[in-house]
Amino acid sequence: MRVLHSVRWWWLLLISLPCGMAWAQTPVSGAVTVRLMSQYDYPPFQTGAEEGLTFELAEYLTRHANGQYRFVAEVLPRKRLDLYLADPAALWVVPWAVPRFFGPDATSTYAWSPPYMADGNHLLTRKGSAIRYTGPESLAGLRFGATLGHRYGLLDPLVQAGRLMREDCYNLLCNVEKLKRDRVDFAWVPSGSIGYLRKQVSDFDTSIEVSVRPVESFERSFMLPKGQPALQRYLEGMVRKLASDPAWKDALNPAGMGR
After folding, report:
1. How high is the pLDDT of residue 21?
2. Three-state DSSP class for 259?
3. Which run of H or E residues covers position 203?
């Protein structure tokens, strides 16, 4: 009788939980945990604590893995990300990855999915600025508002040669404020972040000029360690699914991104 009473008590507790909570508390048995690691700590990739496209993507990949994988989103500085990438025993996936942002040997060092997202960078200057962008060389001698820890494929060679002064700040909003105050001459901002900046900076459109077209265009893919054929096949299948899933397209459209 005591056993039956105990079973009845647990059943009542289970059905009293809000819809979905009982199942959410139970981990998928046998699922392989995969770290979904991104260095992008700004919108649309991260919009708050455990919010943004990176976290939505982790949930989406887990939900469609049928118990095979559990993706855990992490946002971490680029230097820490590079340390994890060098660990041969680690199991990870880097979303939003662009081969040239990971060095000249990235395509031979890591495995890659087909691209699933079109993106780019825009040039931000102050209203009335005399800057006319015709290529990276046209920015030589200026002050560049950069985000701490991030790499800029077109501009890094100028910085390394001492022909462009890089001024680091901790996020995109900080760079916009420095630009408004004439502490930097320009900033380099992802296409998908411009809408966010417009919402956060009340005088954005009256004080900031955005290049009409991206000054740099690229496509984003999944990057993962070599030697993981099953995981790579799964991600390749998810690339096809992302391209045809209306719900995911809706998640990308407000950010101004997507294929």
Report:
1. 33
2. coil
3. none
